[in-house]
Specification:
By secondary structure, the chain is α+β, with helices and mostly antiparallel strands. It contains 18 helices and twelve strands. It has three domains: 154 residues, Arc Repressor Mutant, subunit A (Orthogonal Bundle), CATH 1.10.10; 99 residues, no CATH class; 99 residues, no CATH class. Strand 7 and strand 8 form a beta hairpin.
Length: 358
DNA sequence: GATTAGGGCGCAAAATCCGT
DNA sequence: ACGGATTTTGCGCCCTAATC
């Protein structure tokens, strides 16, 4: 019923994930010093806040429901609080807090319904900056599958949540950007950003164990394996500072929550579905005259998902089967022949709304 | 002006966090 | 593992604003 549906892929600046997980205390590096707050250029309001469990959950909740301008319009408090698994009271407290430090603006419309605006959304929350005519990310952002975010909300212990956020950044870096087959966190790195009191080897191991719900976690705790892992990964070696324990964790995302994989396979399937339509339609019309680029189809796939795209494309295919070239005369298909992507967008939007109500 | 509805806020209990 | 500190939450009072 709510027109605000959850984003399928939730985009979060790495600097936010780092800030929320806690900045590392280990600033010394081989080449000098590295302060995460400067390195990531983390906006001040994010540094000033203490990131408690409910605050992390609420911020992720906002990011999961905002549009590409960082706006969530007319949404029920209950819905947001439920999503974050907190009371409405805490949601209010945090919304007020976020507003007072300049992270958001919000207004209450009528009982229990608010509109929220994330301030400087692109710069602050996505790390995107204008450059020439396009946007560039300085320190990167991570795409999270909505199912993954929902699982994050189920984590009870803040510190496990913190480790999860770091692991996600690392997966983005090592696997998605650097194309390695696994991401690595060392014991010392984990200890660096967690509060001092939970730095014990067993505690850290236990936390990583609990992440195996949505990460594929592999422990490397034997000295020989540790050293050989270090040897074959130059980037890892470079970012090491201290080694107090030969203990590291290889993490991978489970396929069902891997935003990148999901996106890629869905894109490919949507393209195939489009070509199936083409096969049928070109018996009746000059299909290639429509000039639909694969990149716009991919973006439809990202926004609405393969299932919805396929259902709509199938329906169009059936209409071609049934009506053939007569389709060109029909009013409802007029927009399709003038601007196919606009038409598909419109139809997909209605399609997903219908599903939401049902 | 009485009544009511809704949000803010203080209080205190419960849950969690954190330092040792 | 223990205990003080902090966060989260529900309860209920108070204020405001809308309605009759």
């Amino acid at each position: 019923m709510s027109m605000n549906q959850e984003n399928r892929h939730v985009l979060v600046a790495n600097k936010l994930l780092i800030a929320m997980s806690g900045l590392t205390r280990w600033t010394k590096r081989q080449e000098g010093f590295l302060y995460e707050q400067h390195h990531y250029n983390i906006p001040k309001p994010f540094l000033d806040l203490k990131w408690t469990k409910s605050r992390i959950r609420h911020l992720l909740t906002l990011l999961s429901h905002c549009d590409d301008q960082g706006i969530i319009s007319l949404v029920e408090n209950d819905m947001l609080a439920n999503y974050a698994r907190t009371s409405v009271r805490s949601l209010h407290n945090n919304l007020r807090l976020f507003e007072s430090v300049g992270l958001i603006r919000y207004s209450v419309h009528f009982s229990g319904v608010v509109t929220i605006e994330l301030i400087d959304y692109l710069e602050n929350y996505r790390d995107l900056f204008e450059e020439a005519d396009t946007h560039r990310s300085k320190t990167g952002y991570t795409s999270l599958w909505c199912g993954m975010v929902r699982q994050l909300m189920d984590i009870d212990h803040v510190n496990i949540l913190r480790v999860a956020l770091r692991a996600l950044v690392q997966v983005e870096r090592d696997i998605h950007v650097q194309s390695q087959d696994k991401a690595t966190l060392t014991y010392d790195e984990v200890r660096g950003f967690l509060p001092r009191y939970c730095g014990h080897r067993l505690a850290v191991k236990g936390m990583l164990d609990q992440l195996s719900r949505f990460f594929n976690v592999h422990l490397v705790e034997n000295t020989k394996d540790f050293l050989s892992a270090l040897k074959e990964n130059a980037a890892l070696k470079r970012r090491m500072h201290t080694v107090t324990r030969p203990l590291m964790f290889h993490v991978k995302l489970e396929a069902q929550v891997d935003s990148k994989k999901i996106r890629e396979t869905e894109r490919a399937s949507t393209l195939i579905s489009w070509f199936d339509l083409r096969e049928v339609a070109r018996d009746y019309i000059d299909f290639d005259r429509l000039e639909v680029s694969s990149s716009s189809l991919q973006s439809l796939s990202d926004t609405y998902g393969f299932t919805a795209c396929d259902e709509v494309l199938r329906a169009i295919r059936n209409d071609f089967h049934q009506y053939g070239e007569l389709l060109q005369e029909s009013d409802i298909y007029q927009l399709f022949f003038e601007s196919p992507i606009l038409y598909l967008n419109e139809r997909l939007r209605r399609h997903t709304e219908k599903l939401a109500i049902a």
